[in-house]
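Please, is this right?
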Amino acid sequence: MICQDSMAGLTVNSGFQRPWKFRKVLELRFASGILTGSRNVSEEMEVIRNEYAAGGNPTGKYVSGLEISAWVEAMRSLEYDPVTLSNKSKWP
């Protein structure tokens, strides 16, 4: 993913910034180092961003200390997992 135009107040000076924290987000696909496709996911990121803004937690579930620790570690990760991105039950 490549992102542009970060939103004030959402980014943290720690780790990998999640794509929903940007206004413009493109998902790039590569095979053997060659760009094979791209997709504008800016609107999907806006939906995620709005869900966070509405409740502070898009899942609406109570978050334990262990879950918060896992979330902090996930924020520091450089991994991009499109399955997690599309599966709201796996959002931190």
